[in-house]
């Protein structure tokens, strides 16, 4: 009797398990416990998104995803951090944020081992290991490693370069800048601040980029090579100027005689031909010249005195 009851019980349990796995996807064969689960799964294959936002039209497979999305429009943030009281729209966002307080860094790079608090930071970091820049600016054709960087380039910084907008004005000289950081760097011209110091000679610089260029004096590094004559340069701008030797380009033109020059400095020197300016004095010749003048004055004075004596006699 007991054996029969046990057999029936096993058969009953077997039937329960069989019923639980009877919902199968017709496309990929994946089995689900519930009819609603397989129905939701089928939207992956069909591309049909049943739940759509009535404000922006974005579609979602799950109703809960739509509900979370709606918080972007309503501004609702029901999940608050117990430490800093910052609020978040989803529980997952709050959980990620808590890593800031705990110091936990669960996301690690498989290539270099760098660890991060949030997954997005890891994704951004991974671009360091690739040299590709697939996201190209439609205005200037400059390439970027990520879409987000391109968007910031266009919306916040770069578009001002093309539109000419310069909303950040220097309070001292009224010069305008397209970026706040550029204005901040410019202010050091007026303050004389030089926060970037060379470790070798202790010379200070107003910009980090200038310090980087300066360091090549000590290292002897010349990363910019002329494609024509293979001459090497420490600065990109110097190479650019040098290339005019080969191209014959003379973009700097004299307003008076229309003579062209390859360098701005050469044009500046040339302008002295027209202005008559002579800013450089030879100390040796200057000293000799002064002696000649004094000698002439002395001689003139002596001759004058002799003439007076002759008249008196």
TrEMBL record:
InterPro entries in UniProt? Znf_C2H2_sf, Znf_C2H2_type
Q: Which family does it belong to?
A: Belongs to the krueppel C2H2-type zinc-finger protein family.
Subcellular localization, as worded in the UniProt entry:
Nucleus
- Tell me the superkingdom of the source: Eukaryota
CC per GO annotation: nucleus
Name the chain's protein: Gastrula zinc finger protein XlCGF26.1-like
Q: Which Gene3D superfamilies match?
A: Classic Zinc Finger
Give the organism, scientific name: Xiphophorus maculatus
């Amino acid at each position: 009797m007991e054996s029969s009851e046990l057999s029936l019980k096993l058969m009953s349990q077997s039937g329960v398990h069989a019923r639980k796995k009877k919902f199968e996807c017709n496309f990929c064969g994946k089995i689900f416990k519930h009819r609603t689960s397989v129905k939701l799964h089928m939207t992956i294959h069909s591309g049909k998104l049943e739940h759509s936002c009535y404000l922006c039209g974005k579609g979602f497979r799950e109703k809960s995803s739509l509900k979370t999305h709606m918080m972007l429009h309503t501004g609702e943030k029901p999940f608050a951090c117990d430490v800093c009281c910052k609020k978040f729209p989803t529980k997952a966002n709050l959980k990620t944020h808590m890593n800031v307080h705990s110091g936990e860094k669960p996301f690690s790079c498989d290539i270099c081992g760098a660890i991060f608090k949030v997954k997005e930071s890891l994704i951004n970091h991974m671009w360091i290991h690739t040299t590709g820049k697939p996201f190209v600016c439609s205005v200037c054709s400059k390439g970027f490693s990520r879409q987000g960087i391109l968007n910031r380039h266009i919306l916040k910084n770069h578009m001002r370069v093309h539109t000419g907008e310069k909303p950040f004005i220097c309070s001292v000289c009224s010069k305008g800048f397209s970026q706040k950081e550029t204005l901040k760097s410019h202010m050091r011209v007026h303050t004389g601040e030089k926060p970037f110091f060379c470790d070798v000679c202790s010379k200070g610089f107003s910009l980090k980029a200038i310090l980087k260029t300066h360091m090549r004096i000590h290292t002897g590094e010349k990363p910019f090579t002329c494609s024509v004559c293979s001459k090497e340069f420490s600065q990109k701008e110097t190479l650019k100027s040098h290339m005019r030797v080969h191209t014959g380009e003379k973009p700097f033109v004299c307003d008076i005689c229309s003579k062209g020059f390859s360098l701005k400095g050469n044009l500046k020197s040339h302008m002295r031909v027209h202005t008559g300016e002579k800013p450089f004095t030879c100390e040796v010749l200057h000293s000799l010249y002064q002696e000649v003048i004094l000698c002439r004055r002395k001689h003139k004075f002596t001759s004058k005195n002799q003439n007076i004596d002759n008249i008196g006699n």
